[in-house]
Amino acid sequence: MNFNTFDSSSEFDPSFSEVGGVGAGGPVSPSGLSTGDTVPLRSSVSGPSGVFRVSPDDCLAVAALDTPASNTGCPRTCAFPDWVAFTVPAASGVSLDAVLAWLTPSSGAPSDWVNLERGGMGYRGCFQRGQFRVYYDGSPSMGVHVSLAGQAVRQLEQEFRLFTEAAWLRWFGWIRSLGCSFTRLDMPMDDVGPDGVLDMAVIEAAARSGQLVTLFRRCQKIASDSWELGGSGACEGGETLYFGKRSSELHVCIYDKGSQKGGSIHHIRVEPRFRGANAEYLVARLLEKGFSEVPKILRAYLDFKVSLIDGVATGDSNKSRWDTAPWWVSFLDGCEKGRFSAKPGAVRTLDSVKVWLTRQASQSLAMVFDAIDLECRASGLNVRAVQRRFIWGLVEEGRGRYKSKHRVLLGGYVPSASACLFP
Are residues 89 and 63 in the same domain? Predict the structure, then answer.
């Protein structure tokens, strides 16, 4: 494989050939679309379901569909990339020009990139080509950052022929082989058309009544409504439910995309968003098992339940034993729960305890010491003596509350004269 630019016709692990868009037209070649290929299309706002015969001009047209080509020929569970971001580490020694070359198709030229006046995301500079954005000139350790959001991903599909799941997996593997780290990956799934099974009101009601098993601790609803002034009065709006904190490394966004388009169609999107270590770990999972892992992970984090069976309450207080709501089973195509743990448990050491103490308790401790100082000055007491009594009182109280984990941590500490933990 040429590691300077992505070659859509390069060799690919044949184990992924079976995940490249299986449907009425059969498996799609992992090398991407070419003239004469057939791609089974799912029902969407772009046209009826069926088999689409690809001509040379259609190779570009397919990527322009509102529902991406990588989300075709699959059951409802077919996820597709909708936001991709990765960082090229500074330690890799890869130049900015090389990164721009990776994202320039054979039909393009370096002059297509425009150096914007402003940067972003902590970087002072940014190059843009179409919807692509490449950030540079950050701190020495930040490297180069590539952000492909929404339409930029559709542009990537079009220019690099990422029309199948297998082609996407090959591209993910290629980016990883270049030493890059993925920092964000959104993998939405759509419920589109008259046969849709999701309803925003039902989802919200289930969340509010607690009829779900979830690893998230919060749900937030945001409603939007906008209309044209002085014109037709056309209205656009919709509701969005966020499960988990939006700033976290994994949360799920469910929103009414149909209402955003004027409400003429049923189109609800369920969008798991992976960031940081979760994004990197997800890419590794996708390369191993394919896009079918996404709905399994989704169900592990969000599983809507029903408390009634044939109209009768289950009487079971353990929600995990309740039946999954039929509409959620249908949307996820009956998939089982998957496991997803990007970060192994952190290894706690005395050094990490010291860091925690410095970050979390030092300000409060300094405030108390300053208050002691003021009191002692007013009463004529020895400041240092009172401060020592206070701090040793805290220490003795804490020592009296030791648990086995504290004794194990202390027992594993080996003092060193050359590298003192507490200088």
Answer: no
